[in-house]
Amino acid sequence: MRKKIIAGNWKLNKNRAEAAALAKSIVAMYRPEAGVEVVLCPVFTALESVRQAIDKSVVRLGAQDCYWEEQGAFTGEVSCSLLKDAGCDYVIIGHSERRQFFGENDLAINKKVQAALKQNITPIVCVGETLQEREADRVEEVVGTQLRVGLQSLSAEQLEKVVIAYEPVWAIGTGKTATPEQAQAVHAFIRKILTELSVPAAAEKIRIQYGGSVNPGNVKALMSQPDIDGALVGGASLKAESFIDLLHFQESARV
Ligand code: PEP
C-alpha cells in the first residue's frame, strides 16, 4: 500500500516570516492520523525559517530545485548537499515552469535526480504535456520521453525512492483540472513505463502525484483513483485552511 504524499509548492511566494507563519499553522492544524506524508517547499531563503517551524513535527521540508554539481564556480546554484544541510528531505525537479522559463531539459533533470539520490534526498520529478501536445494526441509520447530520459541509468532500487508528479501543463495555475479518469489514464501509463525502466515490484512502490489546480473540492475524487498517490499543490497550498482541507481529504464530505 503506497502512502499518499501531498506537497505544497509555494513557488516564488512568501518571505521568511510569512513562510514560517504558514508552516506553523499547518503543523498546528494537521492531524497526523490522516496518514498523509506532508512536504512543504518554500523558496530557498525561507528554508531555514520553515525548518524551524516544522521541527519535531511529521511535516517534511523540500526545495523547489537543485543543481547537480557539489560545489565550484556555478554562480547562483544550490547543490543537493547544501539542501541536505538545510534540512531538506525532498526536492522538486523539472517543474514545468523550470522547463518553460529556464530551458530545463530531460538530460539536466536526469543529472539533478541522480545528484539528489546521492544525497539521500527524494526527488519529486515533474512530467506533463502542454495543451497543444494533448490536442495532438501526443501525451504518451511526451510523458514517455520525459520519463525515459529523466530517469535514465537509475537502478530499480534508486527508482523506488523517486516520486513522480504528473502535472499537465494546461492544468497548472489555470483552475482547469484533469478529470480523475483523465489523470488515472496517464498515471497508469506512467506506471507502465516505470515497470519497463525497473521491475514490476519496484514500479508498484513508486508514488505518482497528480498536480494541476488541485483544491479541497476535487482532491478526494482524484485521490480515489488507483494510481494517484498524492498531489503536488501550488495555489491551494498558500493558505493553511485550504491546504489542511486537502491533507484531511479522507475525512471530508466534499467530492
Ligand atoms: C504546481 O505548481 O505544481 C501546481 C500544480 O500549481 P497549481 O496547484 O496552482 O495548479
Describe the structure.
The chain is α/β, with parallel strands linked by helices. The protein has an eight-stranded parallel beta barrel, surrounded by five helices. 45% of the residues are buried. The model has no long low-confidence stretch (mean pLDDT 96). The protein is built from twelve helices and eight strands. Helix 7 packs across helix 9 (180-197). The structure holds phosphoenolpyruvate. Phosphoenolpyruvate binds next to strand 8.
Describe the secondary-structure layout.
Layout: E1 5-9, H1 16-29, E2 37-41, H2 47-54, E3 60-63, H3 80-85, E4 90-93, H4 96-102, H5 106-118, E5 122-127, H6 131-135, H7 139-150, H8 156-159, E6 163-166, H9 180-197, H10 200-205, E7 207-211, H11 219-223, E8 230-233, H12 240-247
Parallel strand pairs: 1-2, 1-8, 2-3, 3-4, 4-5, 5-6, 6-7, 7-8
Bound molecules: phosphoenolpyruvate.
What is the compact description of this entry?
This protein is of the alpha/beta class. The chain has helices at 16-29, 47-54, 80-85, 96-102, 106-118, 131-135, 139-150, 156-159, 180-197, 200-205, 219-223, 240-247, and strands spanning 5-9, 37-41, 60-63, 90-93, 122-127, 163-166, 207-211, 230-233.
